Amino acid sequence: MASRSSGGGGSIYGGAAPYRSREGLSTRPMASSDEIQLRIDPIHGDLDDEITGLRSQVRQLRNVAQEIESEAKYQKDFLETLQMTVMKAQAGVKNNIRKLNKSIIKNGGNHIVHVVLFALFCFMVVYLWSKMSRR
To answer: Is 35 exposed, middle or buried (0-12, 13-18, 19+ CB in 10 A)?
Structure first.
């Protein structure tokens, strides 16, 4: 594995001492000062277990990402369906208001007079009932 060093120089590892991560991993100096070589010590060979663990974590993360993707698609479809339903409802309300306005214009505005007369009649009944109940 070749990698660029940070140009630290001065260590016995060819300037790559910052890259030493743990026991079992060390670097060897190379002829070129820009490259390092990583040597894995077989005594500390639990790296296979760590790689297996990392693979399982990557697999879990991939499964989570796939679940997130499927949920996002479901939510997107749901929102699109909801938008279409709202648009249809708005169109229906607009058509009903248009029909109601045509009906009001055609039949005249007498319905407002009827509502006001009904309200006055109800007020009068409640007033008379309250006067009668005090006696």
So the answer is: middle
Q: Where are the beta strands (DSSP E) in 15-128?
A: 25-28, 37-40
SS3 readout for 86-109: HHHHHHHHHHHHHHHHHHHHHHCC
Pairing of strands 25-28, 37-40: antiparallel
Question: Which CB contacts under 8 angstroms, 24+ apart, belong to 37-45?
Answer: 37/1, 37/2, 38/1, 38/3
pLDDT, tens digit, for every residue of 50-65?
Answer: 888 889 999 999 999 9
Single pTM value for the model: 0.41
| Residues β-bridged to residue 37 | 28
Using CA atoms, how far residue 74 sits from 41, 57, 71, 79, 107, in Å, is: 49, 26, 5, 9, 49
CA distance 70 to 62: 12
d(CA 117, CA 20): 94
Structure tokens at 118: 């009904």
**Can you name the residues that pair with 4 across neighbouring β-strands?**
35
Rounded-to-integer distance, Cα 27 and Cα 71, Å: 46
